[in-house]
Amino acid sequence: MPHTSEVMLHVNGTPHRLTLDNRTTVLDALREHLRLTGPKKGCDHGQCGACTVLLDGRRANSCLSLAVAHSGARITTVEGLPRGTDGLHPLQQAFLDRDGFQCGYCTPGQICSALGVIAEAAGGHPSHVTAADGPPPGEPVPLTADEIRERMSGNICRCAAYPHIVEAIEDVAGAAVTS
Amino acid sequence: MTTSRERALGADTVRIEGPAKVTGTALYAAEHTPDGCLYAWVVPATVARGRIVSIDTAAALAEPGAVAVLTHENAPRIEEPDDPILGALRDDRVPHRGWIVAVAVAETPEAARATADAVRVTYATEDHDVVLTTDHPGLYAPETANGGYPGSRERGDFDAAYAAAPLTVDVTYSMDPMHNHPMEPHAAVARWHDGRLTVHDSSQGSAVVRETLAALFAMDPAHVTVISEHVGGGFGSKGTPRPQPVLAALAARYVGRPVKLALHRSQLPALVGHRPSTIQRVRLGAGPDGVIRALAHEVITYTSTIKEFVEQAATPARTMYTSPHSRTTHRVVALDVPSPSWMRAPGEASGMYALESAMDELALVAGVDPVQLRVRNEPSHEPDSGRAYSSRHLVECLREGARRFGWRDRDPRPGVRARGRFLLGSGVAAASYPVVITPSTAEARAAADGGFLVRVNATDIGTGARTVLAQIAADALHAPLDRVRIEIGDSDLPRAPLAGGSWGTGSWGWSVDKACRALRSRIEAAGGTVPAEGLSASADTTDDVQAGTEFARHAYGAHFVEVQVDRDTGEIRVRRMLGVFAAGRILNPRTARSQFIGGMTMGLGMALMEGATIDPVAGDFPERDLASYHVPAHADVRSVEAYWIEEEDPHLNPMGSKGIGEIGIVGTAAAIGNAVRHATGVRLREVPMRPDRLLPHLG
């Protein structure tokens, strides 16, 4: 038999005790074992971002993470985003409003990644395009369109809904700043 | 029931399946997992040409979880496929590197991959030939090119007219192979049950997949169902059946359980088609005013040894510009390479790159503004056929684009706009894509509660087809959009053509419109009320479409681009892209804009980063992932604007629409190349225009 391990994953607030092949990625654990189809397999290689989830609060390519190495982790997928009274998270609504997708295959990863981006900027993490004379370390970085484009570049959209994705993130990031 | 007409069409309707896509509940092919499902992984050939001598599966079958390894020696016999790319596991022949020589099946994805890795194949290799050259002895003139176009066309006396022309341009452009790389890799899940076969396939058209599977397995097509409800892009690579549904069905039959076969990203380049490289010589002979007197567009390309696919890159030159004397030809050579196929706007994307770059070169030679040069070469009738255009608003697109872009203020001198280490420049190019309409059927049902159901086997690969078809139905039914439910993406639905060639909405929509109008008549005949058992109507547009047209029908567009070139590194960045299109009636501005922008951005990729190489030693593409085959990412795409002009054309279909899925990519690379020339004075005649290609020319 293949080498297996008992793995505990807290996914979208629900604990799951799974016996998994040690080669199983977090992505395959979610898709094939928990039947969560939000995280997508685009390249299985860490190069497209379609599999992005929040792993212990930070965005991560779940295809590059072995489940056995993340036992005890808290994972949020697009299915588990906190939703408003209309049934959608503000980012999901913004993607709909802005037509921030076409085929939809990269969309859950884009949305999870955008959540990470908003949190990272709010937490004062600079990016490659953050000006040297920008906010001091630890201070929130304003999410300009250039900042969003830079920080979202790990999430490929072959339909190229990029301008609309940036608008959707601006809508939500701007609302977060003003609220 | 409302009597107001034309309410839904033209509205900015949000995608019907949008909520499912943003919440992760829209299911794509590989996300269906029937009970007892096994996993398959393909084994690609590691030689470019030869025969399989032996396949040792002992170690593979000893892998924990391994169930079976299918090879040409043990795979169930199936009929010979019409398309040779579906012929894996039929014999010992290896026609190209990456060809599937075995399929491993196991209990889990991990075990399937390990099983495949443990298969040992021995080959008798033969010398291979994978390099396209302009003097390859195997080059021949094909009778037809992709799309059924004649391989060669001659009009007038090109040689004499070109020799006599006061101004001439004689330039050759080349283009590396390109890969479609939709975000969703090709996948299929096959299940045999009660003598029936059900397959979830990532396909642009499940009807042909169903017919192909039925023929291969010698079944009644009524016993085969193929479902492609949500498809993660295709761009041509899922147009006709690709190997995955055939091999999944074959494996499922062999092991007696459902099988899921998802190709890995690294396996796509060799297995699902690509845009082949082209070498294109364009000669333009013109009068002193820049008006073309002689035009030759001669294309050299390759195909594989198992099928003839000829990228029809010389065809746009037959329809675009005034050209009293014309020669448009293709020559092709069969190489030991993976089979090329459709990639977004085959022929137009490649051919218009060369033609629209050459037009820019002619503008320079003639000393005429490139917008004005195109206006001067506007033909009164389609040059190749002599037919009148059903509508042609290229000049309006050029003028509207020029106005929006601020073209009037452009200084034509090259290399004079420095901003620090950047050189800025702008360029223009035209776009064109033919209107093709294909027969389709549809059914519409009315329920007593006022609801409607429209059924048509269309496919929504991200175009918004589902939404636009519902809009068409609502207007034809005189019903509010929210009373119309639509079913697509299932071969048990009324037969309809695949999503490709920008013909989807025009073809499916016509049959939906016709079925819904017929249903409305029935409701009216029934006194305006729907009886308890409901009413229904079906439509088939075969006769309507085959009645044909006396007109030449094309969509047009104009691209305006501003670039910056880094003088130190040779890196080109697109600062701004602006496209204006004339594509008949725009049925949903929201989804249309996304399609135009998406096409333009893929054109940016074609211009700057998308290029594969065929390794002359190994025999296929070394770039087998998204880190080595670059497609545009967020940071590459700054300002992209798409506009259209209102175009009335009564000679198309009941909606008055032209296709919009491909025209965005047509001409974009030329506009970028023309802008690079304006920025730097350097004319690159190959794409992608990577820094290593540009830098040696920057002083």
Structure description:
The complex is a heterodimer of chains A (179) and B (699). With 179 residues, chain A is an alpha+beta fold. Chain A folds into two domains: 77 residues, Ubiquitin-like (UB roll); 89 residues, [2Fe-2S]-binding domain (DNA polymerase, domain 1, Orthogonal Bundle), CATH 1.10.150.120. In chain A, 32% of the residues lie in helices and 15% in strands. A five-stranded mixed beta sheet of chain A has the order 2-1-5-3-4, sandwiched between helices. Chain B is α+β, with helices and mostly antiparallel strands. Chain B has three domains: 120 residues, Aldehyde Oxidoreductase, domain 4; 181 residues, Aldehyde Oxidoreductase, domain 4 (2-Layer Sandwich); 342 residues, Aldehyde oxidase/xanthine dehydrogenase, molybdopterin binding domain (Aldehyde Oxidoreductase, domain 4). Chain B is 24% helix and 24% strand. Chain B contains 16 helices and 27 strands. Chain B has a seven-stranded mixed beta sheet, with helices on both faces. A six-stranded mixed beta sheet of chain B has the order 9-17-16-15-10-27, with helices on both faces. Chain B has a five-stranded mixed beta sheet with strand order 18-19-24-25-26, with helices on both faces. In chain B, strand 25, helix 14 and strand 26 form a beta-alpha-beta unit. Chain B is globular and about 75 Å long. At the A-B interface, helix 1, helix 2, helix 3, helix 4 and helix 5 of A face helix 1, helix 3 and helix 14 of B.
